[in-house]
Amino acid sequence: MKFDLAISYTWIYDIEFTQLIEKMFQANGLSTFLIKRNNIDETTKFIQDKKISFKAYLDRASDEDSNFLELADLLEKSSCRIINQYKKVAQSTDKALVQPKLINAGLKIPETIIVPPYEVQQELKITERNLERIGRPFIIKPSYYSGGSEGVIKNGFTFDDIHAARMTNKDDSYLIQKKIYPVVINNHRSWFRVLWAFGKVIPLLWDDETLVYSELDVNSEHPEVCNDIVDKMNTIYKVAGLDYFSSEFALTKTGELYLIDYVNDQCDMRLKSKHPDGVPNKIVIEFINEMIRFVKSL
Question: Which of 38, 55, 111, 127 has the smallest number of Cβ neighbours within 10 A?
Fold first, then answer.
């Protein structure tokens, strides 16, 4: 039996998102198959025995739980279309690797010092002059183990701050970055979290301090940057090649639009109606509609 879309997840807060995906897909005449920890072994065996197959697979589990890796490998070698293909994810979500490509593509990124993993280079080869050029406070962020501000130190001041961060993930590179301050317009910070949804750009206002999305329409509030954001997201897509991802931008008082968070492949899609810091429901619905369109096109 062949299903149009298989979805796997491990995060408890993905339940509402996956339920909505199933409801909307099935309402559009598309079949779905849900894979969780309680049926991963059985599903893997079914795939091995060719008892079931999938047209497309949305994997929100194998990056967190190794029990899903065998299934991922089997489906990657089959005719199934992996949404956010694994090789492209690996090449685009490591900030230290993708940053030079983004800069070469013409994107404006805050001045950055890339520090190798502690396991590779224990000595911190940064001078006081380097930090003076970046400015204080500065941002310290993991190259790989971060997303949606997770693991990011927003007010670094000293070499000890950098050392302490490197001790957290000794196998990860770190970015020491100039802090960008968004201009306040109409009582909100001009910070944008933008979704690339299967070819459609969906810009959202997101407060980098409260971590809460605004319901305000970006096109109405910031018509001066909307076209620029769309152009920049298309550029990021050409570098990353992912089916969906999010990026973050900040607009400064001088009118410069900086790319802050590069490529986040596992977007947090909690619903705002259930979680104060979730994504507005209408945006989640819009995202799923674009995924429906994508799967139908396969």
Answer: 38
